[in-house]
Each structure stands twice: as structure tokens, then as C-alpha cells.
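Dear support,

I submitted the protein below through the web form. The confirmation email said the job was done, but the results page showed an empty box. After a refresh the structure appeared. I'm attaching both so you can tell me whether what I see now is the final result or a partial one.
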Amino acid sequence: VALRTDQVAALKTSQVASLTTDQVAALETRDVAALTSASIGALTTDQISKGLTTDQVASMTTAGVTALTTSGMAALTTDQVVALRTDQVAALKTNQVAALTTDGTAALETRDIAAMTTAGVGALTTDQVSKGLTTDQIAALTTAGAAALTTAGIAALTTDQVVALRTDQVAALKTNQVAA
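What the results page shows now:
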């Protein structure tokens, strides 16, 4: 007999952190959705990358996703990043955005990039911009999002990425970004 959802929700953070990757994978999506933010934040990188299924990632509340540590964000596989809902991506904290791998950044859907806050876009590292963002993702940025890219991020854009910028995005760039 498996733990009921209310029992899973009642687990202490230390108990959640002690689960094996197989035990994490065996949790029902409703169980993962019921975990407290503190419990989600207690997940280890192995539990995240080797235990959580894509369905479990998609079932997390936005508060649960924003409770992931930066090492937890970096541990997400590309399939898990793809499974993130747009509202989850839009809720990410700047340190979480910066913690995504370049492959993780590339795995974000264009609708996720468009929904990202300007602070989130501004938190993208130079590597995430130049090696992670696809031309479709660049084109999906809002004008405010394009303007939020750091000067270093703008300078790191590849020729193909610059070509992908829409006219309104270019017009929204600040003088120091154009001078980059």
C-alpha cells in the first residue's frame, strides 16, 4: 500500500530529502503537487535529475517550482525543462533563470521565453544567450525582454541571432546595447 497524498504532503523536509530516486519517481503527480515549497526545495540534485518525471515537474505548483534551489534548477534535464508550464517559467526567480544550463535554456519553448519576466530575461548569462537561445527564442522575446538583455548578452549574440531580432526589439534596445 502506497502513501496517500495527505501523508506525502505531511512528510518533513528531511524525510523528503531521504527518499531514493526510485521512491521519488514512484510518487503520483498529485503527490508531487501536494508537497510543500519547503519539501520541493529539499529535493537533492539526484532526486531531481534522476527521480522526477516530466509529468511530476509539470504537476508542481508555481510556488513549488520557485522553491527549487539553483543547484536544483541546474539539475533539471532538458526533458524536464520542456515539461515546465509557461506559468512556472514566468514565475522563476532571476537566480533560477541564471542557473539553467545552456541546454536547459535552449529547451525552453518560445511561449515560455515570451512569458519570462524582464528581470528573468535580464538574468540570462552571456553563455545562455549566445549558446542557449535559439533564433526562434530570440524572436519570441517581448520588446521589453529584448531590452532587458545585458550589454554583454547583446554583444555575445551570434549573427543569426541578431538577424532574428524583430524591428521593434531593435528599436527598444538602449544606446549602450547598440554600442556593444
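Response: this is the final, complete result; the empty box was a page-load delay. The chain has a mean pLDDT of 96.
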